[in-house]
Amino acid sequence: MKKILKFLGLGLAVLIVAAVIAGFIANEPMPTQREGGTAADELARKMERAVNKTAWDQTRFVSWKFLSGTRYLWDKDKKAVLVEWGDNKVLLNTTDRTGLVYVNGQLVNDTEATQKLIDKAWSQFANDSFWLCAPMKAFDPGTSREIATNKAGEEGLLVHYSSGGVTPGDSYLWLLDDSGKPKAWQMWVNIIPVGGLQFSWEDWSGGTNGPQIAQQHDGKLLDVPIIDLTYPSYTDENSPLKALWE
Prior knowledge:
Oligomer: single chain
Number of helices: 4
Strand content: 25-35%
Strand order of the largest sheet: 7-6-5-4-3-2-16
Distance between the termini: 58 Å
Radius of gyration: 20 Å
Helix content: 25-40%
């Protein structure tokens, strides 16, 4: 048994090392051939139209589950989100990062424990909601836009985030089809040492008139699905988040 475990451990270590080496071989610097100005902004507006940002802005509640298993119910109008993972449930105000925390159904009154779980909920939401609706955020505060060409010679829309989220300073190169709808993106983000990792944007939901949301993002080493995407119809009176404003 010890020999088997040793062999399995060695195999896992080899796979990890191989993945790291493959990642660094695939490392791509951020495009140096790029141009900002009106043309870049027009391309970003084209992307917004392709994903029906108008319908997204008119949508109040969005519910989904992320790859990690964390579940969300986002009230966009109230700027609040219900975040659930394991035995934890956090009702979070996204503007000031305050809220209510429950563990095993019981309200947590300890200030330090509450803040720790609120911080974790915010971090998860900031990341996971970006995978949900990043095409709608090309003009967020702190963004800049450029038309850029990657190493493969593909031209796209490079959006840089100097503020916001958990890791400001990240950049994303959108590769778009002729209509402006994203086909894929490449990312240069602080938490990943390999630059230019590419993930697809596909399996779009929303039909003809709804917000266009890509439910599948495939990468070379990892796939990132958006699971159980729905648009619930709540009011202030029956919202699961109402404890935040009662």
